[in-house]
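re: ur question from yesterday

yeah so i grabbed the chain u mentioned. its 189 aa long if i counted rite. heres the sequnce exactly as i have it in my notes:
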Amino acid sequence: MEKFLQQIRACTVCAEYLEYGANPVIMASSKSRIVIIGQAPGRLVHASGIPWDDQSGGNLRGWLNIDKQTFYDPGIIALMPMGFCYPGKDKTGDLPPRRECAPLWHQKLLSQMNQVSLILLVGQYAQNYYLGSNAKSNLTETVRHFSEYLPKYFPLPHPSPRNYIWKSKNPWFDSTVLPELKKLIHGII
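ran it thru and got these structure tokens back, copy pasting raw so excuse formatting
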């Protein structure tokens, strides 16, 4: 597994499209029990090289009700984005994850993790890729019907501070989804 992770970290397949250069960010182990598939590293994560090393990561750890030590233990949790490198900025936020990463690396990576009990699909890019035609008409409906994707997948919105408006419009997320998520996570840990 470590050799394979080194290959991913050395990847430059889409470097010519990345304004800030290639810096694949990944954390996983063959013993990982939970996989968190997010969008793509942001600017801060690109700089630090640590997955979810920003306010979104803090929010996600809060949703899971776990501390940093547990979150960053690859024997428990694998952290892999849809695009391993920071894609750069767009007019309204970060660009979408590069399309090359998931088809090139995801299945190979997941096949080396034989103890996975749950995959969290964080955001619409991960949900569309993994759920395909089983995803609902939009992220809100996919997350609302999270139980339909269990026991393998658990869809979540992105924990970005930009999504506070979404959370305020969907109070059922805090009252219904998060308690079930925390119960599942702590049962696996």
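noticed a couple things. Strands lie at 34-38, 77-81, 118-122, 153-156. also The domain at 2-188 is CATH 3.40.470.10 (Uracil-DNA Glycosylase, subunit E).
anyway ttyl
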